[in-house]
Amino acid sequence: MIETEFQDEFSVFNHFIASRGLKSTRQRELILQTFLETDKHIDVEELYQKVKDRNPSIGHATVYRTMKLLTECGLAHERHFGDGLARYEQVTRKKHHDHLICIKCGRIIEFTNSSIERLQQKVADEHRFTIFDHKLELYGHCSNCKSVP
């Protein structure tokens, strides 16, 4: 059932769960496949609904536990955007990006900006600081919400 497109991710995941003494199951494979086919930040409930459409016997707890495993093995990154929900995004297929988060409708816009990246590095260099990772999240109103009273 593994699609060739995601062979590397399935290999990483299967190696990781085997190292933990866990078994590869069709349910975990379906959750991983569905997650990898998603091109947006997704919370567990949204992913659960997508998975449930494909296999109604999969439980919410299985999706939650599998996302925890995907995060631990480095295939998913858990993000929090100030609304109490944990959202997940793929790690392996996305290059570094930052986020604009609408506090009215919850829309998340990904963007890259080389000037911002250079400025961050300049600030780090001025302080003789080595950056290993970073995130930039800007909160405000998207173009749809700023025109609505």
- Major sheet description: 3 strands, antiparallel
Secondary structure tally, helices: 6
What's the structural domain tally? 2
What is the number of E strands?
6
Mean pLDDT, to the nearest integer, reads: 88
CATH topology of the largest domain: Arc Repressor Mutant, subunit A
Widest sheet: strand ordering: 1-3-2
Indicate the CATH architecture of the largest domain.
Orthogonal Bundle
Helix content: 40-55%
Distance between the termini: 48 Å
Low-confidence stretches: none
Describe it.
The mean pLDDT is 88. This protein has 149 residues and is of the alpha+beta class. The radius of gyration is 18 Å and the shape is globular. It is built from six helices and six strands, in the order ααβααββββαβα. The protein has two domains: 87 residues, Orthogonal Bundle (Arc Repressor Mutant, subunit A); 49 residues, Dna Ligase, domain 1. A hairpin with a 5-residue loop joins strand 4 and strand 5.
Question: Can you give me a brief rundown of this structure?
Answer:
With 149 residues, this protein is an alpha+beta fold. Helix content is 44%, strand content 17%. It has two domains: 4-90, Arc Repressor Mutant, subunit A, CATH 1.10.10.10; 98-146, 2-Layer Sandwich (Dna Ligase, domain 1), CATH 3.30.1490.
